[in-house]
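Q: Could you fold this chain for me?
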Amino acid sequence: MNASPLPQLPSPLEIVTPRLHLRQWRAADRAPFAALNADPRVMAHFPSTLDRAASDAIAERCEALIAERGWGFWAVERRDSGDFIGFVGLNVPTAALPFAPCVEIGWRLVHAAWGQGLASEAARAALAAGFETLGLSEIVSFTALSNRRSQAVMERLGMRRTAEDFDHPVLPEGHPLRRHCLYRLDADAWHSAGLNA
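A: Sure. Below is the predicted structure, expressed as structure tokens.
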């Protein structure tokens, strides 16, 4: 587990991959992010779609945390077009999770960006930042048991599913998405497997 205090960078980290730019949020990201969060295909494994106010609140929180720490859930744009396609990055969950404290990796991309390896490309770069720049000892990821697409990304990243399935505390008993699985990756495994190559 990653103990406090959390690493802080002197200025917001930006990451460039062959196809993507992970960066600080901009005002122009709000509208496409709201469209993403209103898409039932994207939000199928979340409790509901989000209205504009709720979507903007998430974007503002992501922007503020990056400004404060230098890292977080980065806005992601395609380098070839400059189009905003969602977010990928690292986050400290605020829910009372049974494996907290921790740093998670997460992603949410527009439906048009699915199936092209973009989530894996961005997430691999975010893991590298977490282990190599921030010096984290472990990064976790979790999702609803039904979300096989995200679990496949976690597996492609070299993360390993644990036996620590859990009920997400923000979802009520009986909710179909309440049961979650947990994946872990530690720095030693990251380096020994050459996952940073």
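A (continued): The mean pLDDT is 95.
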